[in-house]
Write a sequence for this structure.
């Protein structure tokens, strides 16, 4: 039996030129994103991350002419260490005089049906031939903070599509670990590296993709009160839109309302269009499409890592086309409080696509709030977990951390 397990397995998956337009994969409603954390703090949040698959192990990839299906994916591996087979890094820079890191969440996600795929022509049809059984320890990775050695992290499997009917073709997964203690005990600002994230190399139906996100919530005493809410899971965006309602807050009675949305997804294409995100305007009584100079309103998820109007370049590699991995943070355009007004207590957010197909696995919402909302909901700096409309004291899922041997 042990000898049998050593042999690679082979599977054939039907592939079409328009794999991203697949008609046979439909959204599974039970896979919607769910609220994971909620904060009422004086402070803010920031997200960094990078992709883990590309055309080359170390070089930037900036072409946008090919859809992801046509790129032979390789593990990104930039750390020059024999102990890792994949690695990429990103730089974190928090403001001066922060009080402390309140919370740090590490996510990694990939398509991972088998170890490697290649094209094969059978009866005038292009097929994907997959070889190598997927490693079941994909929830274990390595994580390096500034000026430190790698730590072994064993995360929680938030979602695994390998045995699920609608997801088996490319088997996306999402993992999460609470790494707050690692940021509290060490130098905070600097380069963070995530290694040994597993994904399918070569090709896979829809194009293989992988990446990681570090989301950091910090306290800063001179900041205005904020409300921050994070969601995680996996939601397939194909034909049916995803609706998210942000609530449990109240904006200030007077003045400008400043709010930010952060999202992370895999399998979006730089070339394929029609994916959108929009916010409902109470004043205009309609959804308003979001866009930036780098993210058109008809191609919002376009395989890039951006912060408002800029590509995030303090990372290695710093590819403009991250081949299916999207990480975006943007300030809601709210001139004259057109989208988020004074005394507002909820906001409706919508993500959709018609031609492209992608998996959204992380979303965060942040807004300034009234003093009364902050005082009523500040639970002595205790993290809280939301389940439906019920608030409970959180029991953080902390990655099992060990010193690197």
């Amino acid at each position: 039996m042990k000898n049998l397990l050593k042999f690679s397995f082979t599977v054939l998956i039907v592939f079409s030129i328009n794999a991203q337009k697949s008609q046979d994969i439909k959204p599974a409603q039970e896979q919607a994103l769910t609220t994971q954390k909620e904060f009422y703090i004086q402070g803010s949040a920031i997200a960094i991350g990078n992709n883990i698959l590309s055309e080359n192990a170390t070089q930037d990839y900036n072409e946008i002419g090919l859809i992801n299906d046509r790129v032979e994916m390789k593990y990104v591996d930039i750390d020059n260490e024999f102990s890792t087979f994949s690695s990429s890094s990103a730089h974190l820079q928090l403001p001066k005089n922060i009080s402390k890191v309140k919370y740090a969440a590490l996510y990694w996600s990939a398509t991972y049906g088998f170890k490697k795929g290649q094209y094969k022509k059978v009866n005038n049809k292009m097929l994907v031939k997959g070889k190598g059984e997927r490693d079941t320890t994909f929830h274990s990775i390595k994580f390096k903070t500034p000026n430190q050695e790698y730590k072994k992290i064993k995360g929680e499997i938030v979602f695994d599509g390998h045995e699920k009917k609608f997801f088996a073709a490319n088997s996306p997964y999402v993992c999460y670990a609470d790494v707050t203690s690692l940021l509290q005990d060490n130098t905070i600002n600097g380069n963070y590296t995530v290694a040994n994230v597993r994904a399918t190399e070569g090709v896979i139906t829809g194009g293989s993709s992988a990446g990681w996100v570090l989301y950091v919530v910090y306290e800063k005493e001179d900041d205005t009160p904020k409300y921050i809410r994070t969601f995680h899971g996996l939601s397939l965006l194909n034909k049916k839109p995803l609706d998210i309602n942000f609530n449990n807050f109240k904006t200030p009675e007077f003045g400008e309302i400043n709010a930010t949305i952060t999202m992370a997804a895999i399998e979006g294409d730089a070339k394929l269009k029609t994916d959108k995100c929009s916010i409902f305007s109470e004043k205009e009584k309609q959804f308003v499409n979001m866009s930036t100079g780098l993210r058109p309103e008809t191609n919002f998820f376009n395989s890039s890592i951006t912060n408002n109007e800029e590509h995030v370049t303090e990372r290695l590699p710093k590819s403009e086309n991250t081949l299916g991995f999207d990480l975006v943070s943007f300030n809601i355009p709210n001139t004259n409080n057109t989208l988020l007004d004074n005394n507002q207590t909820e906001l409706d957010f919508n993500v959709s696509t018609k031609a492209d197909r992608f998996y959204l696995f992380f979303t965060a919402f942040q807004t300034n709030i009234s003093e009364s909302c902050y005082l009523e909901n500040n639970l002595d700096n205790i993290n809280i977990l939301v389940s439906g409309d019920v608030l409970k004291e959180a029991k953080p899922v902390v990655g099992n951390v060990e010193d690197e041997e």
